[in-house]
Design a protein that fits this description.
Elements (H helix, E strand, L loop, with lengths): L4 H7 L4 E4 L15 H14 L3 E5 L5 H13 L4 E7 L2 H11 L5 E8 L2 H8 L3 H16 L5 E6 L6 H14 L3 E6 L6 H14 L7 E6 L6 H11 L3 E4 L13 H10 L16 H12 L16 E2 L2 H9 L18 E2 L7 H10 L6 H15 L7 H14 L4 E9 L6 E9 L2 E9 L2 H13 L4 E9 L8 E9 L2 E9 L2 H18 L4 E2 L12
Parallel strand pairs: 1-2, 1-8, 2-3, 3-4, 4-5, 5-6, 6-7, 7-8, 9-10
Antiparallel strand pairs: 11-12, 12-13, 14-15, 15-16, 16-17
Helix pairs in contact: 2-3, 2-11, 3-4, 6-7, 7-8, 8-9, 12-13, 14-15, 16-17
């Protein structure tokens, strides 16, 4: 019996991770990489711990040939594969490109479905079999490691596939790949195909069965895993699932499914360094320009983020209530409790504590209701938003004037108009005003409602956080007689924030709480300039 989990993992049957990010992944529209970028990704994939790196298609272009050749001579500890069609020129070109590798593989393919034979290749089945035998033998003359793929295998006749793979193995193929080239199959059907091939292909026990799935029907990961359960021992994948059309099977999804639910797949393991998944994902996304969707499994920004109040409450009590993986295991800094309109008090209180804000129960209740109002206006509420919100709440707690509602109207001609309703000592008062802009009109309306007139000396507005839905924070200073008073206001609308700041300053005038006594005249600005 193994003494620990590490020994157990080493003794578990291993699945070979064949990464084709630099070949099939780069075929994703718009994802072309420069030569230097390919080297950067190649180094990252080696650090990630993949087994086989399909570095490119050498016959495709001189640039692709040179990239494969350079990578082959650079990386260590992995097998470097070059893709080639079943023809002499491609195979010889691939052989030249990978010959400098520490471990070299030629990966050659030909279509086997009747659709491709008739419309693309214009070959008979017997002609395909003859070419498979001849080209695999040619590849075998350059390297002992030859992989053969039957393109569009999942739409091919199963008995013909048996003959094709038997021919490839007899000619020297050490890996036989069963691609779902167009994302057509389903998990049950794909597993049955694996079982059929294992039972009918002579010599199959001497070759590794590989699977390469596309995501046209959204089943690439499920199909790949079902094939592993049925006996496949190599998975062909890309980082972030990039690739032709809807993409390839995601490396990170397969690796973490095998790591998290190993017992469902025969106890198999990989040698992937899971903590490198997120950093590698970010690099590939940055260099290819293909963004990772937020709800992408494992590496998406929301993969370990929780907004719902019920979830946040459970997470704060025990992480495993809503997380089946530890985010730090795959390279994230940790769980993220996102504050939004679905958040509960537990998550709200926890976030306040994390940023160093302590409130009594009454203050917390008020802050939570203010937060919900803000969350209805913003997609996400940040720590900076919370700090500003609580600061504004505490500053305004004792103000004798409170904003109830407001309205402002402005157009391309004529003065702006504003109306306001303010609560003063529990009694609502209203006022109207006109001015040079919406803020000036609201200030006039507030003066009308409160019956106090003052001079605006300083006005400053700034965004609390970046983004179009950021809260506006207004700080201003007014003079009444020889006294100066300050006001602070916060809202997602800068006009409302301005009104709140002005009301806060007027509250101090009523309460007789000047900010400072400044002797002599002070240069003033117009109410709104």
């Amino acid at each position: 019996m193994p003494e620990d989990g590490v020994q157990a993992a080493e003794q578990a049957p291993r699945v070979i991770v064949f990464d084709t990010t630099l070949r099939d992944g780069e075929q994703s529209p718009g994802a072309t990489l420069t030569a230097d970028e390919k080297l950067e990704v190649a180094d990252a994939l080696v650090e990630l711990g993949i087994d086989v790196m399909e570095a490119g298609f050498p016959a495709a272009s001189p640039g692709d040939f040179e990239a494969v050749r350079t990578i082959a001579g650079r990386v260590k500890g992995v097998t470097v594969a070059g893709l080639a069609r079943c023809n002499e020129a491609d195979i010889e070109r691939a052989a030249q490109a990978v010959k400098g590798a520490e471990a070299a593989r030629i990966h050659t393919f030909i279509a086997t479905s009747d659709i491709h034979l008739k419309h693309k290749l214009r070959l008979t089945r017997d002609e395909v079999l003859e070419r498979v035998d001849r080209m695999v033998r040619l590849a075998k003359g350059f390297t002992s490691d030859v992989e053969f793929s039957a393109e569009d295998a999942t739409r091919s006749d199963w008995d013909f596939l048996t003959r094709v793979f038997a021919t490839a193995i007899a000619a020297g193929a050490t890996t036989v790949n069963v691609p779902d080239t167009v994302g057509y199959t389903s998990p049950t059907e794909y597993a049955a195909l694996m079982e059929h091939l294992i039972a009918t292909v002579p010599g199959i026990e001497h070759a590794v069965i590989s699977v390469h799935c596309h995501d046209d029907l959204g089943m690439a990961t499920a199909n790949t895993l079902s094939a592993v359960r049925a006996g496949a021992r190599q998975v062909e994948v890309t980082m972030n699932g990039i690739g032709e059309r809807a993409g390839n099977t995601s490396l990170e999804e397969v690796v973490m499914a095998l790591a998290t639910r190993s017992e469902q797949f025969g106890g198999v393991s990989t040698r992937i360094r899971k903590e490198r998944l997120v950093p590698t994902s970010r690099m590939v996304s940055m260099l290819t320009g293909v963004p990772v969707q937020p709800n992408k499994a494992i590496v998406g920004a929301n993969a370990f983020a929780h907004e719902a109040g019920i979830h946040q409450d459970g997470m704060l009590k025990e992480r495993t209530t809503y997380e089946i993986m530890n985010p730090t295991d795959v390279g994230w800094e940790g769980t993220k409790l996102v504050l939004g309109k679905h958040s509960g008090r537990a998550g709200f209180r926890n976030t306040l504590q994390e940023i160093g804000i302590r409130l009594d129960e009454e203050q917390l209740n008020e802050a939570y209701h203010r937060f919900l109002t803000l969350a209805d206006r913003k997609k996400a509420v940040t720590a900076a938003d919370l700090a500003a919100l609580v600061s504004d709440q505490l500053e305004a707690a004792d103000d004798v004037l409170q904003l109830v509602r407001w309205n402002a109207s402005i157009g391309s001609s004529g003065p702006a108009t504003g109306s306001i309703v303010v609560s003063r000592d529990g009694r609502e008062v209203s006022g109207d005003g006109q001015g040079n802009g919406a803020v000036d009109a609201l200030f006039e309306a507030i003066d009308d409602a409160v019956g106090i007139s003052c001079e605006l000396e300083e006005y400053n507005v700034e965004a609390v956080t970046p983004g179009e839905d950021a809260q506006g924070q207004v700080r201003l200073r007014v003079r009444s007689g020889d006294q100066v008073y300050t006001g602070h206001g916060l809202a997602t609308d800068v006009i409302e924030a301005s009104a709140r700041a002005y009301i806060a300053a007027l509250s101090k005038i009523i309460q007789g709480e000047p900010t400072a006594i400044i002797p002599g005249p002070v240069s003033a600005v117009s109410r709104w300039s």
